[in-house]
Amino acid sequence: MAKSDKLNFSTPSGFPEFLPSEKRLEVYLLDTIRKVFESYGFTPIETPAVERLEVLQAKGNQGDNIIYGIDPILPPNRQAEKEKAGETGSEARALKFDQTVPLAAYIARHLNELTFPFARYQMDVVFRGERAKDGRFRQFRQCDIDVVARRELSLLYDAQMPAIITEIFEAVNIGDFLIRINNRKILTGFFTSVGVAEDQIKTCIGIIDNLEKIGEAKVKQQLEKEGISTEQTQKIIDFIKIDGTVDEILDKLNHLTENFPEAEQFILGVTELKTVITGVRNLGVSEKRFCIDLSIARGLNYYTGTVYETTLLGHEALGSICSGGRYEELVGIFLGEKMPGVGISIGLTRLISRLLKAGILNTLPATPAQVMVVNMQEDLMPIYLQVSQQLRKAGLNVVTNFDKKGLGKQFQLADKQGIQFCVIIGSEEAAAQKSSLKDLQSGEQVEVSLEKLAEEIKKRITINGS
Fold first, then answer.
1. 107: Cβ contacts below 8 Å, ≥ 6 apart
2. For residues 372 and 410, is the Cβ–Cβ distance under 8 A?
3. Alpha helices (H) along 14-133
4. What does the alpha-carbon distance between residue 80 and residue 85 come to, in Å, rounded to a whole number?
5. C-alpha to C-alpha distance for 203 and 222, rounded to whole angstroms
6. Given 3-state DSSP classes, what are the helix, strand and coil percentages for the chain, each rounded to the nearest 5?
7. Fewer beta carbons under 10 A from the terminal one: N or C of the chain?
């Protein structure tokens, strides 16, 4: 191959590739998230990366997401087959852009095999053909939970979501965060009460949802561009800016329900919000972890009730680190029956990228190994293998160095990978059934019998908090 024909093997733009230390951080976070999900009874599922295009686009579920279509590339001698088959209509396929729409299809496909309410979690990669930029990817991992029921779903499931979010982010110790809660019925009902036409409401909610991104002035401009009068626009802005403690905002909303006695949707939204807040409190979520924010709308049209967005305090520019809400029609569109659901999603790949860059999280050592058994003499390899297995059976992660190098270089290799302990066994140690244990963090080296080696390493790990 000529130099000019050299293949470009760099990763495609927007498709992340982790180094071992980054991947280990992702695995740690996945394990932490999974434990919390399962503690609330959520069960894992996996849906195909590829769905029928008509499923992904059903009744506007796509939102503003750009879908990657799947078009097989056949050898030249088989192109005629492709043209003859004509993969169009119901046969057209695409990569999933989120987990919620595929969940709806999954439930429709397995309706008679599932028990309801059906609570599932899913931690798969999804694909969006958006412009790749800092913190935004075309392929990323989402960690989702949803509960779906047939006909009716208790609002206490909505209340559980902030409790779950709180447990996850407190467990990974990312600092102070705030879960902002609202109800789309409140927004819909308020828009109706100030005279906004029904066919304009979804567009207006989408504009409001961009308040933090574009600012109040542009929100006003866009609302007025949609035909909303200056007076209506000001009322909307004043409403979504209502603030105070949770109880203060609920009192203000209660007062407004008296002024809008015929606004059934608004009153229903306030009633649902009060039920959810009561449930959140009963679940023991700290008052400092949540608030009511009447500007939260969530852009996807399938949300109909409770909505959530989570912000990392002091790092608001990172945007929402966990969001979601309740939907009534999404699953039912495939079955023709009412199947309400509620869920949240953590865009884990995006979150890791942002938190690493902000210095809030750090990568883990490149290897999970805690111990390296160094290679002092090739003829002692049987002992090194036996000692390595002894330590593994005691629950330690061990690397056996099969390459004979200088002791200093083996220490450097262990230190570079973040391995804390090196076990040194030469001829004299082997004869005496002893070893030298070197702690690369403290520099201390002690003599330990092979019988007590695992116990000594575990004690030092506990003391050091490793």
1. 114, 118, 148, 331, 334, 335, 339
2. yes
3. 20-39, 53-56, 79-85, 100-109
4. 8
5. 10
6. 45, 20, 35
7. N
> Contact at 8 Å (CB) between 240 and 222?
no
**b/e per residue, 399-413, with b = 16+ CB within 10 A?**
bbbeeeeeeeebbeb
Distance CA(208)–CA(213), nearest Å, equals: 10
Alpha-carbon separation of residue 412 from 134, 348, 406, 457 (angstroms): 34, 33, 10, 19
pLDDT in tens, 148-184: 999 899 999 999 999 999 999 999 999 999 999 999 9
CA distance 441 to 429: 23
**pTM for this prediction:** 0.89
Phi, psi of 245 (to 5 degrees): -70, 170
**CA 270 vs CA 180, 181, 232, 282, 327: distances in Å:** 15, 12, 21, 18, 17
CA distance 281 to 180: 14
Contacts of 169 by beta carbon, 8 Å cutoff, 6+ apart: 177, 310, 321, 322
* Beta strands 421-424; 371-373: pairing state: parallel
